[in-house]
Each structure stands twice: as structure tokens, then as C-alpha cells.
Design goal:
143 residues, Thiol Ester Dehydrase, Chain A, 5-stranded antiparallel sheet, 23% helix, 35% strand
């Protein structure tokens, strides 16, 4: 059982626990089917190369799903992911490690909710931020 994160346990500047992913080409094909994103650059190497890419690339929305998983794993079942946004700044490739990271930037109570804002990002094996974003989570508090 995962321990529930509480508002009092979070400090500004704290790191969100990292999530490491290594998507395979097979996972990209499954994601294409599940998401309806069948653009061939995500599963057909020859097509991707014909579009001046070095090979197949990871779907942007799959990268955002990894960031959401990092957040929801961290906040626990009683936490709420209230806002999420990200933008894609670089390409990621199958069979390469992607590391999802985050940091708490603000913590406050508003409208009866315990709010925590975070900067979030995904890094490639070189440590380059290929996806960046932000999130607002709402956490339960100690009684």
C-alpha cells in the first residue's frame, strides 16, 4: 500500500519522486492503437527517416502520460491532479531512458483546498529537458 502524501509533508523546493521509463517500439504501437495517433513517425522507421528524423520517435502524448503517472503516483489516491500542462521541446526515442522529474514551486491554501504547484519535465539520457510543464495538485491535510 502506498503512503498517502499529505499537504503538511510537502515543502517548496522539494523534488517530486522521479519516474524512469524506457518505452519500446512495441509500446509505441500499442499507444498508437489506444490513442488513435497513427502517424507513422511513431512506428515506421523508414517513414520517419523519409521525414528527416533519425528514426522512430516517442509520441508527445505518451510523454505527457508518463509525467501524469509520476504526479499521480506521488500524490496518492486521495490527492487530485487539478491542472496539468506541458510542451514538447525535443524528441525522445524508443529503447532510450526517459527520466520524469519535478519540483515543488509553491504551496498554499485557497478556497478550502490545499494546493501545491510544481514544475515538471522529462529528460533524455543526455540530461536534456525534452518535455517541460507545470501542474497543480490538491492534497489532503492531517486532521
Amino acid at each position: 500500500m502506498v503512503k498517502q502524501l499529505l499537504f503538511q509533508d510537502v515543502e517548496v523546493g522539494a523534488a517530486v519522486p522521479t519516474l524512469v521509463k524506457k518505452p519500446s517500439t512495441q509500446q509505441l504501437v500499442k499507444w498508437a492503437g489506444a490513442s488513435g495517433d497513427y502517424y507513422q513517425i511513431h512506428y515506421d522507421k523508414d517513414f520517419a527517416i523519409s521525414k528527416n528524423l533519425p528514426g522512430v520517435i516517442v509520441h508527445g502524448r505518451l510523454k505527457s502520460a508518463f509525467l501524469v503517472q509520476m504526479l499521480t503516483d506521488w500524490i496518492g489516491v486521495d490527492g487530485v491532479l487539478k491542472k496539468f500542462s506541458c510542451s514538447y521541446r525535443g524528441m525522445d526515442y524508443p529503447d532510450q531512458t526517459m527520466t520524469c522529474k519535478g519540483a515543488v514551486t509553491k504551496k498554499y491554501a485557497q478556497g478550502g483546498e490545499n494546493c501545491v504547484e510544481c514544475d515538471i519535465w522529462a529528460e533524455n539520457p543526455k540530461g536534456e529537458k525534452t518535455t517541460i510543464g507545470s501542474a497543480l495538485v490538491v492534497l489532503p491535510a492531517k486532521a
